[in-house]
UniProtKB/TrEMBL annotation:
<dbReference type="GO" id="GO:0009507">
    <property type="term" value="C:chloroplast"/>
</dbReference>
<keyword id="KW-0521">NADP</keyword>
<dbReference type="GO" id="GO:0015979">
    <property type="term" value="P:photosynthesis"/>
</dbReference>
<keyword id="KW-0809">Transit peptide</keyword>
<protein>
    <recommendedName>
        <fullName>NADPH-protochlorophyllide oxidoreductase</fullName>
        <ecNumber>1.3.1.33</ecNumber>
    </recommendedName>
</protein>
<dbReference type="GO" id="GO:0015995">
    <property type="term" value="P:chlorophyll biosynthetic process"/>
</dbReference>
<comment type="pathway">
    <text>Porphyrin-containing compound metabolism; chlorophyll biosynthesis.</text>
</comment>
<keyword id="KW-0560">Oxidoreductase</keyword>
<dbReference type="InterPro" id="IPR005979">
    <property type="entry name" value="Prochl_reduct"/>
</dbReference>
<keyword id="KW-0149">Chlorophyll biosynthesis</keyword>
<dbReference type="InterPro" id="IPR002347">
    <property type="entry name" value="SDR_fam"/>
</dbReference>
<keyword id="KW-0150">Chloroplast</keyword>
<keyword id="KW-0934">Plastid</keyword>
<comment type="function">
    <text>Phototransformation of protochlorophyllide (Pchlide) to chlorophyllide (Chlide).</text>
</comment>
<dbReference type="InterPro" id="IPR036291">
    <property type="entry name" value="NAD(P)-bd_dom_sf"/>
</dbReference>
<dbReference type="GO" id="GO:0016630">
    <property type="term" value="F:protochlorophyllide reductase activity"/>
</dbReference>
<comment type="similarity">
    <text>Belongs to the short-chain dehydrogenases/reductases (SDR) family. POR subfamily.</text>
</comment>
Length: 399
């Protein structure tokens, strides 16, 4: 049922407080609602090129720990002083939005070489230049997460560069809210889960070996999550809600010709597939933590950077959504953050000495102070995390 524009707020918001998350909000498309029915080396050789009632969110998000005011990431710290070399951070999807802003924030400290892992080399190069990133602080390597061959080639190329790996940020994502039919990766997985979860899973599993070898004082593997995959929040209760079900679609390979393109085995829904993929991202981070933190000392983290309503993530959405979403988030939910602010937040998770805790899903309060947030029941389900891990391994031939 379509949502009337007049009903989208504030009644929709109060419905959640009363525990009726979907009151007035049914299957949807405008604002969720279906209007139309609708080490550093100084030079690198190829293949690595050095380049040149307002909504009260605090009633929804419950902090487990006190908020930590976040210091500027470029402040000298005892940890930074001990560091003799620049850190190397691989960031996927650094050609726009959050990834680019994070790359810029890290590059500007002069303490990081950012490896921008991107599917469109020229776009990444242009983006880095127009962001004003200095050549000596970044390099670009090709990575298409929609192809497992490309992921494996990226890993080989990275190793050939000879750089140690100190931080990996799994940031890239696609979102197809208006797609009527699924599209597929080169390996036949539904595209949103294929890129956002499966491609990153393989990349992170492979590069974990490289991170283990690094002598950097604080090594971190970060997988970007989102509020919309967490059904313990208002945003996570906007239909279609994330739900991995019994994972039968994932087990079957996420393809309609052999089963279902959706993780839960249901009918294809692009918006749900994205939210499901974010649940997988947050579960994967926790499973990494349980399996590897103690032995390796690597910190595993996820985060919700805030609603960056202006990014390319919404490029496939209808025009009306793209026009109204930023003011809606700025003035009504007050969840809006600029790309720059979101980039600073993610850069903190990469390098701030106070954010080393592993297994954490970070969020920021309205004063932009970080806090350890609580995940939804499904996004923190230990058994589901293990199953998602094992099934994904199986699809990748790792088990
Ligand atoms: P953007 O669309 O601006 O950035 C996504 C990036 O992913 C782009 O650089 C894109 O490359 C890249 N990408 C897409 N497909 C592939 C692929 N097959 N292989 C390699 N790279 C690919 O969106 P955001 O910056 O908003 O999204 C970044 C992260 O932030 C995502 O994980 C998203 O889920 C998360 N997030 C975003 C929020 C928001 O409000 N925007 C809120 C919460 C989380 P290209 O430039 O070539 O298209
Ligand atoms: Mg949401 C506190 C309220 C809040 C927040 C923080 C977000 C974040 N959203 C909120 C509320 C609402 N949204 C309400 C009340 C509605 C109904 C009008 C609504 C709708 C909506 C739509 C249709 N919101 C959306 C969409 C999208 O297509 C975005 C999405 O789900 O992408 C997957 C989205 C988002 N809202 C957010 C955030 C952060 C997003 C986008 C990105 C993401 O999760 O990665």
């Amino acid at each position: 049922m379509a949502l009337q524009a007049s009903s989208f707020l504030p009644s929709a918001l109060s419905a959640h407080k009363e525990g009726k998350a979907n009151g007035g909000l049914k299957d949807s498309a405008f604002l969720g609602v279906n209007l139309s029915e609708h080490r550093i080396k100084s030079s690198f050789s190829s293949p690595l090129l050095t380049s040149g009632k307002r909504l009260n969110a605090s009633t929804i998000i419950r902090a487990q720990t006190a908020a930590t005011a976040s210091p500027a990431i470029n402040k000298a710290s005892p940890e930074a002083k001990r560091t003799l070399r620049k850190g190397n951070a691989v960031i996927t999807g650094a050609s726009s939005g959050l990834g680019l802003a994070t790359a810029k924030a890290l590059a500007e400290t002069g303490k990081w070489n950012v490896v921008m892992a991107c599917r469109d080399f020229l776009k990444a190069e242009k983006a880095a230049k127009s962001a004003g990133m200095a050549k000596e602080n970044y390099s670009i390597m090709h990575l298409d997460l929609a192809s497992l061959d490309s992921v494996r080639q990226f890993v080989r190329n990275f190793r050939q560069s000879g750089m140690p790996l100190d931080a990996l940020v799994c940031n890239a994502a696609v979102y197809f809210p208006t797609a009527g039919e699924p599209t597929y990766t080169a390996d036949g997985f539904e595209m949103s889960v294929g890129v956002n979860h499966i491609g990153h899973f393989l990349l992170a599993r492979e590069l974990l070996e490289d991170m283990k070898q690094s002598d950097y004082p604080s090594r971190r593997l970060i997988i970007v999550g989102s509020i919309t995959g967490n059904t313990n929040t208002l945003a996570g209760n906007i239909p279609p809600k994330a739900n991995l079900g019994d994972l039968r679609g994932l087990a079957g390979g996420l393809n309609e010709t052999t089963g279902s393109a959706m993780i839960d085995g249901g009918k294809f829904d692009g918006a749900k597939a994205y939210k499901d993929s974010k649940v997988c991202n947050m579960l994967t981070m926790q499973e990494f933590h349980r399996r590897y933190h103690e032995d390796t000392g690597i910190s595993f983290a996820s985060l919700y950077p805030g609603c960056i309503a202006t990014t390319g993530l919404f490029r496939e959405h209808i025009g009306l959504f793209r026009t109204l979403f930023p003011p809606f988030q700025k003035y009504i939910t007050k969840g809006f953050v600029s790309e720059e602010e979101a980039g600073n937040r993610l850069a903190q998770v990469v390098s701030d000495p106070s954010l080393t805790k592993s297994g954490v899903y970070w969020s920021w309060n309205k004063n932009s102070a970080s806090f350890e947030n609580q995940l939804s029941q499904e996004a923190s389900d230990v058994e589901k995390a293990r199953k998602v891990w094992e099934m994904t391994e199986k699809l990748l031939g790792l088990a």
